[in-house]
């Protein structure tokens, strides 16, 4: 069956969907199918996918093990809600609790990372009887009323109204801001001192919510150990630590299965949130928390769609594949090669300020060479040129969207990494 042109679909999109629903590219792409690390659009163009539906097609497009599990479960029952026992949900919760690193863990499933973070904020504020939240500058935690209020990125926080009082802490961005020139050790000391000072001016907050690597913020990260140092301060005040692992979880960073493990000196977080990659495209999110925190709510609750049998079957199959095929190790090996290749390219391109990241979570920050200012127009031009060359990328960043975000499926091969780097090099040189 011939697909109608993407331009025609774009007109229909504009007529019925919100103006603020962002689309990439001057001529938006309709992706019709995918296989492995590649996708095709409605005009028959083939692309190497280095963004995976925003880090969500984590393993591969059309992974047979996941599509088989979804099909078989859909043939039995698609939906029942959490009002009934659900074997796939229990089985996936058992596996996630076991790999979470959180003792006496309980798992609650949602349908998105936004909802997962919203639930974690509900638990923290109820457990601590406080509506004050510590969050990181340049952060992103979702699109709901509570999560935009703890998002430290103006481009993704459309209102200042909030059910929470949010206080922003230094430390999420290593290479910009008042502490950028310090050594890693001094950087951590300065950020801890800032946190200590902040807590001297406020009532006791409920929790600190933090991404170990800031996703939408442009794949920025503090030195290893910052959140462990924060944890010593938080524990003295009884403040919880929520690790937002929506983008960093499941081995994507290569070095660790969870992002918090780079900051593990003083133990695991009290809660972690997850989503995106665990479903390999299916809608799964969730919270892992110590039992006393998860069980603190004093009212009934359910989830109509969280933990649905079909999505749980997908998550089980996908997690099994990730672990059995050591995709964390592949992210470390192939991602390390890709980062070094991109750094070599960046050293020869004046507009590249920094190539950063871990595993298959890589950011390329672009600037105007004459001033060093963020260059969102260059990022957009490179995004367009890469697409013309057959490569799909993402973008993000703090004060301005000037960072290319690279996060391919974790099964990426060395040959595909080299292919993508070559396309990106051409796009960067031509921008």
Termini gap: 37 Å
Which residues sit in consecutive blocks of at least 5 with pLDDT less than 50? Answer: none
Overall shape: it is globular
What value does the Rg take, in angstroms? 21 Å
Total helix count?
A: 13
Element-level helix/strand string: HEEEHHHEHEHEHEHEEEHHHEEHEEEH
Percentage of residues in DSSP E strands: 15-25%
Give the proportion of residues in helices. Answer: 25-40%
Strand order of the largest sheet: 4-10-9-8-7-5-6
Mean pLDDT: 96
Class by SSE composition: alpha/beta
In total, the number of strands is 15
Largest sheet: 7 strands, mixed
Walk me through the structure.
It is a single chain. This protein has 431 residues and is of the alpha/beta class. The protein contains 13 helices and 15 strands. A seven-stranded mixed sheet has the order 4-10-9-8-7-5-6, sandwiched between helices. It has a four-stranded mixed sheet with strand order 1-2-3-13. The longest helix is centred in the C-terminal third of the chain and has 20 residues, at 327-346. The two termini are 37 Å apart.
